[in-house]
Amino acid sequence: MRLNITAWRRVVQLWRLAVLFLLSAGIAPGPWNMTGMAPRSYLPIAQRQSHQPNLLVNGSFETGNLNGWAASGTTGASNAEAHSGAWSARIAYARTSSAGMEADVLTRIGETYKFTGWVKIASESGSDWGGFRLEASSWDRKSLATSGPLLVAAHGNAWFKVALTFTATSNQTRVQIGYFGGPGRSQVVNVDDLALFVKGANLPPNVAINLTPNAIDRLPLTQQYSVVGDDPDGAIVHIAWDFGDGTHALSASGSRRVAIPGSYTATVRVADDDGAVISKTIAWSAAGGGIPSVTISTPAENNLAVHSATLAIGGRASTSTTNVRVSSDRDFAGAASGTAAWTAQVPLQPGWNRLLVQANDASGQISTAERIVRYIPNPPLRVSGLAESAPSIERWTPLELTFALENSAATNPQFPFDPAPPLGLEWIDGISVDALFTPDNWQTIYRRPAFLNQRYERALKNDQEWLYPSGDPVWTVRFAPPTVGVWKYRIEATEARGG
User: What pLDDT is attached to residue 153?
Assistant: First the structure.
């Protein structure tokens, strides 16, 4: 039996065009996954206590002993190191004996808990599998959550915080702290401020940031940066600095070389182990004699929305400038006309375009300025080039629709549109495209997402398969009708359009 899919009433509906700016954060790298990762790279940040009651007895060891804990091997209270107060627990594994401590806590089956603690690896030698770890397990020794091996290579010798989340499967949960691994490695580790509490609504990190100096009067110069704070009910697991001058850092603190004059805004994004992300900004400036300067006068403002595919950009540069170049993050680079007064025509791609202007002098010194512009095509969004893989198909046989979307203003068409994106993903400016199918005049609707389909050509070189993109990506939808009859379909597209 064959199924006729007719196009007698194709409805191509473009709807829900939301007016919304999605400002690009300029962070690379792929999305942050805050859950399901072990071990994590917890960063050494100053402490801020949780308001939840601590179910552990003697988690701060300020009694000067390990009361409430069962210890093995060379494990004891120590006043040689402490994260807060005067005492911590010190665990030394010397390759031939076990070393660690554990405590049993009354828990409620099905309840979710957090286990947090501060760790400092005082010394480490040798190599083998495993390492120091924190773990929560059920009464029958089944692991509920573990930090994975904590080693100097990943965490250094400073204090850092670890947070574990688990759901209790028994009325008693055991927390274990110590070395778990092969005998080829030795570690001496201090732990302090241990806490186990019922997990509530996630609280975001609370941090302060600093840049010193933030007003630089000579170049080049070294600038110090730091993030200080804590996550009240977990641990800070990611930090991303964007200093505004084209440089970035992923560490909580450090130093960097500043060599480009200008006025900038540094942004730091901090994420905790449950995915909460906060942002902090701080303004700073740099000035230096002898280095060329450049300013942009047209366009005069950032985050400008334009409707032309070409932008006229211009400004002024210092007399020592020998050439001015303009580039974008959308595959354009070219020389500007003039130096002291310069102009350029920049082709824009739909969505956000980050434009960078560089002024060079004869000695190779560079100064930069930038603008962020959004190009929104004037005509409305529409579907074109709609094609079916076959005019009629059998039941359960996939039908493939291909088409183009014209005049889209999406910067990232490979991502769906989200009017309220998750924290940390606000930079995504996408578009959602769906095909709706019905066999009974829209009483029953089957929705299928469209995707950008990039075709590839295969080639064999030196006994290895190579894939080469073939043509431009094409919007594609696939649907296998579950019943026979005459079907209708329509295409819906949703994106953010500013202006």
Answer: 95
The residues, any chain, with a CB within 8 Å of residue 364's CB and separated by 6 or more, are: none
Q: Are residues 224 and 212 in contact, defined by beta-carbon separation less than 8 angstroms?
A: yes
The model's confidence at residue 289, banded by pLDDT at 50, 70 and 90, is low
pTM strictly above 0.90: no
DSSP 150: B
Distances (CA, A) of 109 to 53, 173, 355: 18, 10, 56
Cα distance between residue 76 and residue 55, in whole Å: 21
d(CA 297, CA 402): 44
Higher pLDDT, residue 311 or 37? 311
Helix, strand, coil share (%) of the chain residues, nearest 5: 0, 50, 45
Listing DSSP states for 188-254 in one string gives: EEEEEEEEEEE--SPPPPEEEEEEESSEE-SSSEEEEEEEEEE-TTS-EEEEEEE-SSS-EE-SSEE
| 61-106 residue pLDDT tens | 999 999 999 999 999 999 999 999 999 999 999 876 789 999 999 9
What is the C-alpha separation between 177 and 195, in angstroms, rounded? 12
Q: Kindly report, residue by residue over 147-156, the tens digit of the pLDDT.
A: 999 999 999 9
How far is Cα 89 from Cα 76, in angstroms, rounded to an integer?
6
- Say if residues 103 and 68 touch (Cβ distance below 8 Å): yes
Domains of the chain by start residue, with CATH = 2-17+380-495 (no CATH), 70-198 (2.60.120.260), 206-286 (2.60.40.10), 294-375 (2.60.40.10)
